[in-house]
Amino acid sequence: MNCIQEGLILTKFFEKTKQRLSTANGENLSVKFKIPDVHICKDDIYIKQTFILVKYLDIGIILGQPFLEVIKPFKVKTEGITTKIFKRKILFAFNEKPITKEINLLKALSMFKEHSINLL
Fold first, then answer.
1. How many CB atoms lie within 10 A of CB 74?
2. What pLDDT sits at residue 84?
3. How many whole angstroms separate alpha carbon 49 and alpha carbon 66?
């Protein structure tokens, strides 16, 4: 899922949700709210997404599977994820330098046409 750390966004944009979310190791995350109309803007292109607000998220924002589904096909490079939207090449730079293992996994998944994003 797309996630935002609770406390970064004003409460007037929240909606209550019953959605549940857990970490990769199965630990439940504290989720009570979502923001349904977030527009991710890059080079004058807007991508509408929904975000879940998560308490105690170690990183401020995570762009997850729903975002990757919208921008596929994409390529993964050391500096970030590239894609073409409306015939324009767009780079979504990594906030921090990811480790080689994470980049290699994204590169491998980006080569598959079907169902690969679900593996993330």
1. 18
2. 94
3. 8
